[in-house]
Write a structure and sequence with these properties.
Blueprint lengths: L23 H5 L20 E2 L6 E4 L3 E7 L14 E10 L2 E8 L17 E2 L2 E2 L2 E9 L5 E11 L2 E6 L4 E6 L20 E5 L19 E6 L6 E5 L7 E5 L9 E8 L19 E8 L10 H7 L8 E6 L4 E5 L9 E6 L8 E7 L9 E6 L5 E5 L9 E5 L5 E7 L5 E6 L5 E6 L4 E6 L3
Antiparallel strand pairs: 1-2, 2-25, 3-28, 4-5, 5-8, 6-7, 8-9, 10-11, 11-12, 13-14, 14-15, 15-16, 16-17, 17-21, 18-19, 19-20, 20-21, 22-23, 23-24, 24-25, 26-27, 27-28
Length: 445
């Protein structure tokens, strides 16, 4: 049954604020949070999309893009840009420079763009091709000054998240072991989070953050007020996790992993068989402590569900707003076209709450949301990743009132990914997954 989306008050749908002192450190770090400005979009977006003569990206009037990096481009370390560009974060690294740290969701048999000298794991004597590349740009002109490999030896680095202390958390969507699919010939277990400092100018030491859990990782986001890291999982019966570090900002020193549950006992947010999660209703949350988080059997979500954890339909991108987090459930909803949830961490003794912010009822509205970010005007920007014979993936905007509109159409038969804003809010960076390209989009945000 088709359900209409209610129009909700602005006070229940705000994303960003310019005066939130608790998030000053995050803004200063150059992460993709920008001061709120007057909303330039309308309930129908920025207007109709204009066909791109180059056949790459259709945008509204007043917007333009340029390609700043492409598959096969020579990099400064002697390698070439690898394929499958996915999640990405943008950082102010000082001196008028910004850095993009970009994931590459490569499996063991993919091309690496050169013989990598060192990394987390190898196969048949070759370092695994998955990992990250870093691009250093002039903040004013967006000219690429350097690009190079910054992490190697991993598998299927899907999404991740920026930290307030200036690093990128890159997440393996690959809880595989030696001998399993994608794991033929490898020497180590995979399915970890790795940390890549944005200012690193060469390959970093690849240390898995084991206490953050081993599962089918997707994305991560940090609460700068507490240092807690929220993590999504790309499975049909996934959980939302949070990692409470022993020392905020020092994730390698360990901590405690928990899974989200609801106080009222509801255990399924997917709305597949019946309407269980209602739009705009705030549910009080609780958190379940987890053990054996390195999960050699890849059963962390199942053990969490047995303790009352809330099932989510393919948790994907997660992003921080004004004290709250928004995350996609790619195939959630009665129409199985996608949902977006809003998690509000409690402050001063108040409980955490979870709200179903958006649920798509029509492919023209929203179709399989993946990565997401927040625009300077407060709208959500969501990358679609639909699975159809003829791919037609958009960047979708969603207003604070919960209204969806097309922001861009990627004309390639692939997905847009890694959407993130420059620290000054003037530029949206986004990847075309394969063949890999990184684009810089400017316009009247």
């Amino acid at each position: 049954m088709t359900r209409s989306l209610p129009s909700l008050p602005q006070s229940r749908r705000r994303f960003l604020g310019a005066t939130s002192s608790a998030f000053a450190a995050l803004v200063a770090s150059g992460c993709s949070v920008s001061p709120r400005i007057a909303n330039a979009s309308t309930p129908s977006g920025y207007g109709p999309l204009r066909p791109d003569p180059a056949g790459l990206l259709d945008l509204p009037e007043g917007f333009s893009y340029r390609v700043i990096s492409s598959l096969g481009d020579a990099m400064n370390d002697g390698f070439t840009v690898p394929n499958k560009a996915d999640g990405m974060g943008c950082f102010d690294i000082g001196g008028g420079k910004i850095a993009l740290v970009r994931n590459h969701e490569l499996i063991t048999t993919d091309e690496a763009g050169g013989a990598i000298p060192a990394g987390f794991d190898s196969r048949e004597g070759k370092v695994l091709p998955g990992g990250t590349t870093t691009l250093v740009l002039d903040a004013d002109t967006l000219a690429v000054e350097r690009q190079y490999r910054s992490l190697a030896g991993t598998i299927r680095n899907c999404s991740g998240g920026v930290t307030p202390w200036g690093s990128w958390l890159t997440c393996e969507e690959a809880p595989v072991r030696p001998g399993q699919r994608y794991g033929e010939g490898i020497g180590k277990d995979h399915g970890w989070v790795f940390e890549v400092p944005a200012a690193a100018n060469t390959l970093v030491n690849p240390e898995p953050l084991r206490a953050m859990g081993r599962f089918n990782h997707e994305a991560a986001a940090v609460d700068p007020a507490t240092g807690i890291v929220y993590e999504t999982e790309d499975r049909d019966d996934s959980m939302l996790y949070r990692f409470i570090p022993n020392v905020p900002g020092q994730l390698a020193r360990g901590g405690r992993l928990q899974a989200l549950a609801l106080v009222d006992g509801l255990q399924d947010s997917r709305n597949w068989d019946a309407l269980s999660m209602r739009l705009a209703k705030r549910y009080e949350a609780r958190w379940i402590d987890l053990d054996d988080v390195e999960s050699p059997e890849d059963d962390l979500r199942q053990r969490a569900a047995a303790k009352g954890g809330l099932k989510i339909a393919r948790g994907e991108g997660i992003h921080l707003g004004d004290g709250d987090f928004y995350f996609c459930a790619t195939s959630g909803g009665a129409a199985k076209l996608g949902q977006i949830f809003r998690l509000v961490p409690g402050r001063d003794g108040a409980p955490d709450t979870l709200e179903l912010f958006f649920e798509s009822t029509d492919p023209e509205q929203f179709n399989y949301g993946d990565n997401l970010t927040v625009a300077p005007n407060g709208d959500l920007i969501v990358c679609e990743d639909q699975y159809t014979e003829t791919v037609s993936n958009h960047l979708r905007g969603i207003t604070p009132q919960g209204q969806a509109y097309p922001l861009a159409l990627l004309r390639l038969q692939t997905e847009p990914a890694g959407a993130c804003f420059s620290p000054d809010g003037r530029t949206l960076f986004v990847n075309a997954y394969s063949p890999a390209r990184t684009l810089a989009i400017t316009g009247p945000w």
